[in-house]
Design goal:
The structure holds two protein chains of two kinds.
Chain A lengths: L3 E2 L4 E2 L1 E9 L2 E7 L6 E5 L2 H9 L10 H9 L29 E2 L1 H8 L6 H14 L4 E2 L1 H11 L2
Parallel strand pairs in A: 6-7
Antiparallel strand pairs in A: 1-2, 3-4, 4-5
Chain B lengths: L14 H15 L3 E8 L7 H13 L5 E5 L7 H5 L7 E2 L4 E2 L8 E3 L25 H15 L5 E7 L4 H10 L5 E6 L3 H16 L3 E14 L4 E3 L16 E7 L1 H9 L10 H19 L6
Parallel strand pairs in B: 1-6, 1-7, 2-5, 2-6, 7-8, 8-10
Antiparallel strand pairs in B: 3-4, 8-9
Helix pairs in contact in B: 1-4, 2-8, 5-6
Classes of the chains: A alpha+beta, B alpha/beta.
């Protein structure tokens, strides 16, 4: 979908995306020539159609994307022990001295995979680490798990 | 006044751009896969999934590098049958590795992600109206799987398609044009009729349908060491399907038991079903080499 400022005959540019509110997405466009602004307000069906494409409107890091990321795994309700957190992990490292810690590099790798496999990946890798007597998941542990489980 | 095609870009929404990027990720991810084979039918309950797994084992026994993508997201069965329900998807530096069977077949199945007590569901702003968006969402998920997982260097990637003649065609339209199709039927006129419709529908899209397999072609009685009929015999002559038959596989209760329990299948190679699958694997490989990839 593209928007044209008719008086200027100039393509309008996306300015801001507000996260879905009650199923409606607000996308503000502005004309770079005259500054005229307009908002596209979607209904729930239109919002869903865009979401069903597996895309997010706006540049990476836009508000809508951040909001969607915070919404977490789309299957979280179906996964045991997910507790509604972003990737299903029961975060409690500070309270539990026996909790498995993830290094920043390992977390970055985990963040790079589809949301829907993160909970089971985290759980499985933490189990793998514990079985090998470590409470830290780092890149070496991930590589070892990859050799053990993967292809 | 400018028209749609006069305007370059989309003003910053990036919707089309993201779709194109996803397609590029899929193309790059499958670049090392020599053959893509989708196993479908149109008819449900004919044993597509078991045949896919058994065929995968028969091909693996030839030393080929095999992976299976269980594209039946709503009724996944490969994780259980292949014994990877507890498999772990491990993140690499760029892609996610697949769980593998004991003999090295990579398996992606939603059955490894979602317990059998749950049904696949998606967050939605239009709940109760899933008929308007659900298929699109499932294909977006398939895109994500194809783009995010590490398929690597494979001789064959087998797609286990969901049932439904219309679904078979939707997948064919979605999948890489290199994909070849192997259809599965059982010895019943009802099933052959549905598969014939799938053949006709796939032919409209110029898809590369190699042949079909007749599954449950009798059952193997271990006590008698004989194959006995499962379906009525001696009726009117069956209508031929307009594609080659790659073979007939008898139902073997022992195979069914092992699939239910996710046990290895390697030592069943010498059974009638195992021998039939070896023949089908041979004909499939010959068919793949003999037919030109279909440009779209």
């Amino acid at each position: 979908m593209k928007f044209l400022c008719v008086p200027c005959d100039t393509p309008m540019k996306l300015q801001a995306v507000a996260p879905p509110d009650g199923g409606s997405l607000s996308v503000v466009y502005a004309c770079p020539a005259c500054g005229y602004e307009m908002a596209m307000l979607t209904n729930a069906y239109e919002t869903q159609i865009v979401q069903s494409l597996g895309v997010r409107i706006g540049p990476a890091g836009a508000a809508a994307e951040d909001a969607a990321a915070k919404a977490g795994c789309p299957f979280s309700a179906m996964l045991p022990g997910s507790a509604g957190t972003a990737d299903g992990a029961a975060r409690g490292v500070a309270l539990d001295p026996d909790a498995v810690r993830w290094t920043a590099a390992a977390e970055a790798r985990l963040a790079n995979i589809p949301e829907f496999v993160r909970p089971m990946a985290r759980t499985g890798i933490e189990r793998f680490a514990r079985e090998r007597g470590t409470l830290e998941v780092n890149e070496q542990v991930l590589d070892a798990a990859r050799d053990f489980f993967g292809m | 006044m400018k028209g749609y095609h006069d305007i370059v870009g989309d003003g910053g929404s990036r919707v089309l751009e993201q779709v194109v990027e996803q397609r590029a990720r899929i193309r790059d991810g499958l670049a090392g896969v020599r053959h893509l084979v989708a196993i479908g039918s149109g008819k449900g309950g004919v044993g597509k999934s078991t045949l896919t797994l058994h065929l995968g084992h028969a091909l693996r026994a030839r030393g080929l590098r095999i992976a299976i993508l269980d594209a039946d997201f709503n009724g996944p069965s490969q994780a259980r049958m292949a014994g990877v329900q507890g498999g772990v998807f491990v993140p690499g530096t760029r892609k996610v590795s697949l769980p593998r069977t004991t003999n090295g077949i990579g398996i992606f199945s939603m059955g490894s992600v979602i317990p059998e007590s749950s049904a696949l569901d998606f967050e939605s702003t239009a709940r109760g109206e899933s008929h308007t968006w659900r298929a699109t969402r499932e294909f977006a998920l398939l895109s994500e799987v194809l783009g995010a997982f590490e398929w690597g260097e494979l001789d064959l990637l087998l797609f286990d398609l969901p049932p439904g003649a219309e679904r078979t065609v939707q997948y064919a339209d979605f999948l890489d044009p290199r994909t070849a199709y192997l259809l599965v039927t059982i010895p019943s006129e009802v099933s052959r009729g549905v598969v014939a419709r799938s053949v006709a529908a796939l032919a409209r899209g110029s898809h590369r349908v190699l042949g079909y397999v007749e599954n449950m072609s009798g059952y193997y009685c271990r006590d008698c060491d004989a194959i006995k009929p499962l379906f009525p015999e001696g009726g009117p002559a069956r209508a031929d399907l307009p594609i080659p038959c790659f073979g007939s596989v008898p139902f073997d209760p022992e195979l069914a038991r092992r699939c239910d329990e996710g046990l290895p299948l390697a030592d069943l190679a010498g059974t009638p079903a195992g021998r039939a699958l070896e023949g089908i694997a041979e004909r499939l490989l010959n068919g793949l080499e003999a037919t030109q990839e279909h440009p779209r």
